[in-house]
Every structure is written in structure tokens, then in C-alpha cells.
Design brief:
The relative contact order is 0.11. Helix content is about 50%, strand content about 10%.
Length: about 400
């Protein structure tokens, strides 16, 4: 990828109209032009044209961006902001110090997601860490707060015993089709129950479920950190794992789905182009499915629905979870107020930018308190972990 021409081409489309300002979470918090999409595009253009040298201040403005891409949705000139910010971060990657390369927790995550075997072993260790009471003791002692590990520990949900999913789960009753399921990396530890529930439901609805054993991380963590080459390696790995088939590839995390959908932007081959067209968020798929064989039990509670940025601004399917949940009898479905604004749980953002992430989450927690739901539903594992940690 030739970064400088890519930044110049994208930046040229920006007419500085300012329609992006009201939808940008960081600009709303700071009222700083350099913390807006328009301001960051000006910085990127200056960087690409060598009118600005990489510096800690420039890097800070680029790293504060959540890549929520709300600006793309509002932009009348269709500026490809997501590609621009990733390219700019890649351009400054060699100068990055605190945000990614030298952060011990992120180096650990980088190492962890590089191997499915490591993930499974780490999941088992974390499960016993919780079950043994060690987590409770360390949290009470205050030792975790003194280390970078404390940020990661705070995001841990209550884990179930990790287990390896099978590569194939057959449909029950009349077979209506087959799908592949993308299970990601961290979600294999932190969101196993969602994967298993998805498989059970898809099977009952009549779908064979394939889970390619060789699949890997979607590449989002590295892509948004400026490590484009490692991200591309994950992308190629997944294209090989899922093959040049025709069945739909379902994701249970919109953050992964957004990156999978856009593989064609980073790999210029026909397989990447066709693969993106096969990717679909599971809420969208289920909302379109035939439920006539099933009878849903009533659930007389209020459910507040949080719209992840990747579902709303990249996949453009934020209405699907609402429609799906409304199928449950006696359930009151309410959208979380200010759903168009990011919660701060953007991938590793709570670890790299904890202060900004906490401010964005505080607003969401206030809306949850005013809405008083029995359940908060979201379609992205990063948002779920970040919001749940705040509620705890």
C-alpha cells in the first residue's frame, strides 16, 4: 500500500464543510479542531506532503480518534476517513512510542492472538484465575491498579470454562442452508456463550454451521494501530481458511464484521473482493430468517439496545438487532439515548486512551441509569466489555 498517495487522494475530497463536527465524539468532548475529522484530515495531508513532521502531539491527535466512522456517514463528499486514519497511523508507526509498540499490555495481546493454541491456554488460566478467588484477592489488594494489567483485568467478564468448538454443527430438522461462523480472537475467551448460542439457534432454524479451524484474528487490532503488514497477514490467513466458497460468513461482533467486509480495500485480488460480499452480521441474518417453526417464550422486561459504531457506520445494519429483539413477546425494546455517539469501547481504546474512553462511557452509563433496563444489548464484544466494566 502506497500510503502517501492514498492519504492525498482521500484528503483532497474533504471540502472542510464541518458537517462531521457534531457527530465526532472526541470533538464534542474537547471542542478542539485538531480532535475533529476535519482537523485530523488537515494534519494527515500536511504529514503526507512533508509539511509536518511526526511528533508526540500529532500522534496524540491521531491516536485519540476512535475510528468510529460517524464522520463518514455524515460526509456529503464521501471522504474515506477510515482508510485515511489507518494510513496515517501506518505512516507514523515507526515513531509510535506509548500508544502501541511499547505498551506491555498491548504487546501481550499481540502475542496472544497470534496463536489459537495460546488463546485457549490463556482462557483456561484466566478461568481458573477467577474461579480460584485469586482475581478477587488481587483486586481487593489494590496491586492490579498499580500495573498496566489492571486495565485489562477490569475488562474481564465472568468467564465460562473455555472449550474448543467443533468444525461442523449440523442443522436440526429440514436443512435450509449452510453458513460459516467467524469466531474472532478475544471473543473465543470472553464471549464463548454468544458463539454457542448462535450455533444452537442457527441449527434450530435449519442451518448447517461450519467453523473453519484455521481462522485467525480479523486484523483490526493491528490495522488500527498502523501495523498494516501484520493485519494483511491475518487477512490472507482468513481468506485461505474460509475459501472461495459461496456460503454466508456470519460474525457475532460488528467490529470484526466491519473489517472482514473491507478486506478488498487492503488486498487487491478477486478472493478478497468476493469474500467481503459474503460477510453479514448475525443480527441481520437472523432478522431475515424464517422463524415460523419456532415459538418464542415471553420475556416481560425492558431491554435497552446500544448501537455499536461499526454496525451503524460501516455495516449500516443498526436496525437489525432492534427488529430481532422485538420478536420476543412482552419485551419492551428501547434504543439507548445518543446511540449515534461512540461508547469509547473501540477495540484497544480503553487500554490506550483510558481517560477519553472513561468520559465517553460515563455518558452512556448516565443514559442506562435514566432508561433503567433489565438488560443492555449490544452487538460488539468490545462495546460489551467496556460498558459492562463501567456498570460493575
Amino acid at each position: 500500500m502506497n500510503l502517501v498517495p492514498e492519504i492525498n487522494r482521500g484528503a483532497e475530497r474533504c471540502v472542510a464543510c464541518g458537517l462531521c463536527l457534531p457527530v465526532c465524539p472526541t470533538y464534542r468532548l474537547t471542542q478542539d479542531e485538531a480532535e475533529s475529522p476535519r482537523g485530523r484530515i488537515a494534519l494527515m495531508r500536511a504529514l503526507a506532503q512533508s509539511n509536518l513532521v511526526p511528533s508526540a502531539k500529532l500522534e496524540q491527535h491521531l491516536q485519540h480518534c476512535l475510528v468510529c466512522r460517524a464522520c463518514e456517514k455524515a460526509c456529503p463528499s464521501y471522504v474515506p476517513y477510515g482508510q485515511l486514519i489507518d494510513a496515517a497511523r501506518a505512516l507514523t508507526a515507526t515513531r509510535r512510542s506509548a500508544a502501541y509498540a511499547d505498551a506491555p499490555v498491548l504487546r501481550f495481546l499481540d502475542w496472544l492472538i497470534g496463536s489459537p493454541g495460546r488463546l485457549l491456554r490463556a482462557g483456561k488460566l484466566l478461568y481458573y484465575y477467577q474461579r480460584s478467588g485469586m482475581q478477587r484477592l488481587l483486586r481487593a489488594s489494590g496491586l492490579l491498579r498499580l500495573t498496566g494489567v489492571g486495565k485489562l483485568d477490569a475488562l474481564l467478564p465472568s468467564l465460562v470454562a473455555p472449550r474448543q468448538l467443533h468444525s461442523f454443527y449440523p442443522a436440526q430438522g429440514i436443512q435450509k442452508g449452510e453458513v460459516s461462523l467467524f469466531i474472532g480472537c478475544i471473543a473465543q475467551i470472553a464471549d464463548l456463550k454468544t458463539h454457542e448460542a448462535a450455533i444452537r439457534l442457527l441449527n434450530v432454524l435449519g442451518y448447517d454451521v461450519h467453523i473453519p479451524v484455521q481462522q485467525a484474528c480479523c486484523g483490526a487490532l493491528h490495522l488500527h494501530a498502523g501495523d498494516t503488514e501484520t493485519a494483511k497477514r491475518f487477512m490472507r490467513h482468513n481468506l485461505e481458511a474460509f475459501g472461495d466458497e459461496t456460503e454466508t460468513v456470519l460474525t457475532t461482533a460488528s467490529g470484526c464484521g466491519a473489517v472482514l467486509r473491507e478486506y478488498r480495500m487492503y488486498l487487491s485480488d478477486s478472493v478478497a473482493a468476493s469474500f467481503g460480499g459474503r460477510v453479514m452480521d448475525i443480527s441481520e441474518f437472523l432478522a431475515r430468517a424464517d422463524w415460523s417453526r419456532l415459538t418464542l417464550q415471553p420475556l416481560p422486561v425492558r431491554i435497552a439496545v446500544h448501537d455499536p459504531c461499526t454496525l451503524a457506520n460501516v455495516l449500516r445494519q443498526e436496525k437489525a438487532p432492534h427488529a430481532l429483539l422485538r420478536m420476543i413477546p412482552q419485551t419492551e425494546i428501547v434504543p439507548l439515548p445518543e446511540n449515534s455517539l461512540c461508547c469509547g469501547g473501540a477495540g484497544t481504546y480503553p487500554l490506550t486512551q483510558p481517560e477519553m474512553a472513561a468520559q465517553l462511557r460515563a455518558a452512556k452509563l448516565g443514559h442506562i441509569k435514566s432508561t433503567m433496563p433489565a438488560i443492555l444489548a449490544t452487538s460488539n464484544i468490545g462495546c460489551a466489555l467496556h460498558l459492562a466494566a463501567g456498570l460493575r
